[in-house]
Amino acid sequence: MSAVSSRAARRYQTRPGRCAVVVDDLTELRGPTGGVVELPHRLLWRPDRRVDLDQRWALDGLYEIVLTEAVQADELRTWLDGRTLVRIWDDLYLPRGVRRAWEDRHPVLRPVAAAA
Questions:
Q1: Bridging pattern class, strands 36-38 and 18-19
Q2: How many CA atoms lie within 13 A of 113 on its CB side?
Q3: For 69-105, how does the pLDDT look when each residue is reduced to its tens digit (9 = 90+)?
Q4: 35: which of 6, 50, 62, 108 lies 20 to 30 Å off by Cα?
Q5: Cβ atoms within 10 Å of 30's Cβ, excluding its own
Q6: How far apart, in whole angstroms, are the C-alpha atoms of residue 115 and residue 106?
């Protein structure tokens, strides 16, 4: 791996050693938008993994977890919804590498001031 590609890989890390996973098209994301869902243990490490998507704080939390912990695009497709992601993007607390990876691939997610 060259120095340039190694630097780029570090730029998009969720944490040391794990690169962010990003889908090519936001329309691929067709996950649930309401109700109660149960995340797999691999994504949420606690006994009660149910999340009520009708509660805004819980919805944001699910998106933060999935965006940070996903290792396959199918996990993103299963749990996230593209329109919802665009709507709540600015309110999500994400590692810098995750935010950069998604905003670089999907400019619609960039803050309005940065896009101008």
A1: unpaired
A2: 1
A3: 999 999 999 999 999 999 999 999 999 999 999 999 9
A4: 108
A5: 12
A6: 11
Return all residues near 5 (Cβ < 8 A) that are at least 6 apart: none
Q: What is the 3-state secondary structure (H, E, C) of the chain?
A: CCHHHHHHHHHCEEECCEECCCCCCHHHCECCCCCEEECCCCCCCCCCCEEECCCHHHHHHHHHHHHHHCCCHHHHHHHCEHHHHHHHHHHCCCCHHHHHHHHHHCHHHCCHHHHC
- 8-state DSSP, 30: B
84 with 56: CB under 8 angstroms? no
Closest CA to 76 of 111, 41, 26: 26
Rounded-to-integer distance, Cα 51 and Cα 40, Å: 11
